[in-house]
Amino acid sequence: MTDFAIRTFELSKSYGGRRALDRLDLDVRRGEVFGLLGHNGAGKTTTVSLLTTLLAPTGGDAEIVGRSVARRADVVRRSIGYLPENVRFYDDLTVLENLRFFARLSGLRRPDPRIAEVLELVDFTGHDREKVGTFSKGMRQRVGIAQAILHQPEVLFLDEPTSGLDPVGVRSLRDLIVRLNAELGMTVFMNTHLLSEVTKTCTSIGILRQGRLVHHDTLDATLRRFPGEESLEEIYFRLDAAVAS
Amino acid sequence: MTDLLVIAGREIRERRRDPLLLVLIAFLALASIVSVVVAAAAFRTELDAYTAYVSQLLASGSSTPPAAPRLFPMQLLRGAVEYVEVLGALFAIVVGYGSVAAERRRGTLDLVLSRPIGRFSLGLGKLLGLSAVWGIVVISLAVVETIALATVGGASIGLYELRGIALATVVLWLYLVFWSAVAIGITALARRPSTGLIVAVAVWLVVVLILPQIGDTMDPDNQVPGGLFAALQIQRTDELSVMAHFAGFDGVRNAIEVSSIEKHTERLAFAFLGIKDQYNQQPLSAVWADMWPYALTLVAATALVTVGAALTTTRRTLQRRDS
Amino acid sequence: MNGFLVSARHELLATRRSRTASILVIVFVALVLASAVIGWITTRTVTDVYEQIRAAGMTSAPNPFSGASPLYFARNSAIYVVLIGCLMAIVLGTEAGLRDRRMRTSDLVLTRPVSAVSRLLGQFAGLGIVVLVALAVSLAASWVVIAAITGGPLSADETLRIVGFGGISWVLLMAFVGAGILGGVHSRHETAALLAPILVWSAITFVLPQVGTAARPIALLNPVPSVAATGGGFDLASAITGPLAITEQYKRVGAYLLQDPSASGSAALAVMILLTVLIGMFAVVGVTSRRSLRRALDD
Fold first, then answer.
1. CA end-to-end span of chain A, whole Å?
2. Tens of pLDDT, residues B125-168
3. Mean pLDDT across chain C, nearest whole number?
4. Interface test with B, best of C27, C77, C216 (most B CBs within 10 A)
5. FRET partner for B267 with CA separation of 20 to 30 A, picked from A61, A184, B152, B274?
6. C84 vs B205: CB contact, 8 Å cut-off?
7. Minimal Cα–Cα distance from A81 to chain C, Å?
8. Which domain holds residue C101?
9. pTM of the predicted model, to two decimals?
């Protein structure tokens, strides 16, 4: 069994003539919480879309737990869970009906016991008969995490998971991610703008700039490399300025 | 008043750049031309059959040929009028819906409503703008159809014909404004715009297709191909005397038909164009004497739904959100 | 197979929850039912009209309706299938095709081990059951109404004919469900998603038959066909547009099955055309790419 949850080999994606991701080489070990940072339009969502098989690469390849996203997409889909940015559900259906559908699509034959388990894990019991259309963003995000981990994936992809949440929602989601990683051993790959979240959640980070990976290391090593800086934010801007110049 | 004109002006500019509207108008224009071409071809086929029959009769020594079929070119417009009745109404609904739905989905509704505009200015302004758009559309269709009549139909277009076409154009314009107002009102009331569209289309289906269809189906003369009375070789005067015994049934049937605004439009347009035989080549005063009640109901219905559209496009209804 | 069945089941649930879809299905069932009553009232009146004419000595021709089958009362059903049935089918299909794009659930679905073909054909199949139930309920109710009108149950042959009519109606409606799904999946705007299949339906229902037979658009809504133009270019035009005018082909099969005396043309050929269109629609829906399924709506 490979030690790597995610490996990319010169992974590239172009839209027409524009290169959104340029020869990305990245390794994420099993059990890590990896944070991918970058400005808007840096290529973060494209990277997640390629790794979750939503997009096909125009160059290179990637492996999720040793399986190629380009050649064995169907097998990869069994190993991953995905929470898109601003997750939405079928508004006319209840939480239970939504989760049953996604569980069955993932191959779970009798999903109800697992749904109950997962709802407890994400601290969302008692809402399963309510229609999702009435939920706040924070509530939808919890159901979003629930749908992503129903089938016990090995790698969990989170695209801007705290975007639009209030401070309480941010903290609660952050705690949940840490628990999923610590208790279930899930590898977590998250895109985020919030550098403070990365400091509190991630074990390693990567920084994308205009489709290129300009930094990749563990969080501790990154902080050690810049001893004079007080926060990751300062380090991020220093790295970004260095690449820009 | 200025805000009303500003909103109407923006509506016209938006529709001018709307590719969907262009597709719809092109479809309608094409269908109208096809119907004129097909009707003209059908007449020529009928005329050829008559000529062949007459020469056969003459060859066999008969000297009293039957009356030749006569072409009244305006009658070639029947299909084109029906297309506006059926498809034009549908398109007016889609455009009316799109006008309200676009404001919601782009988020420009809140920007407009945060300005000091009159309570009913948004709905009425939009409808005013769409009325202008439909005016241009029906005039363009009338021009296309007149050219088709003159070229494909071989008709000579005089003052009588032009007056008929102009009056029918006004009737069809009111009818399209009616349907856009219905769509604006329903879409404003619906929490989810797409539900508004589906409900408005369902209303169109019932009013434009189902009610007249039920009325048409219940007509005893529509029960056998070519007509029951023709099949039994009954003259028109005898037909009327027979049907006098079924006044109750015919009354119900007619009531079902006239409960649809489409029938009012059709009867007016067919009368002005002389498509209905009894009004063909008749002076306008004779046509108007029979038609004014239909004109009154069409104008009243359009005014009523315009008021409805104004009342439903208030801040309260428009700013409701689905979840 | 898993994705197909799960999608079919999900489609049934989603349609049941959609108020608009439910209303359309109810209106369709009610109208098909009403058509039997309207057919009965009209046929009875026409017979009375004929008796009046005969009593006045104006004709010696036989009653054109004597010996008419009781199924003739339901002939209007074919028109309602073409009108409200097709619209219902288009709305159901469009809603299904749009749902994942509108709700932005496409990414949740497509990151699971399900292929685009099993997802879409599963939705197609789910709607097939919805349409089947709507037709079964409405035609069973028609059977009861006709039996009540004629004072006895319909014979096995007549019942089979109603079942056959339901079958061919299902084929036609599923072709329009497919058109709706395609509109929902491929259109950039929600409005165009619904409008495009409706335009196709109007062209098929009104324009094509007019080109082939010179029938006026509104006359095509009468269950009794108008006399078709022949000669000139019409025979050729009819040969070209006839197979494409699938609603006319459907009305032809319906007229044969419901024992309408004015039925003409080859019903077998019409059935073949309708089946071919449905199979073609399955194929076109089936080749939709994953990329199309997650294309964002511009609305």
1. 42
2. 999 999 999 999 999 989 988 888 888 777 777 888 888 899 99
3. 85
4. C216
5. B152
6. yes
7. 8
8. 2-293
9. 0.86
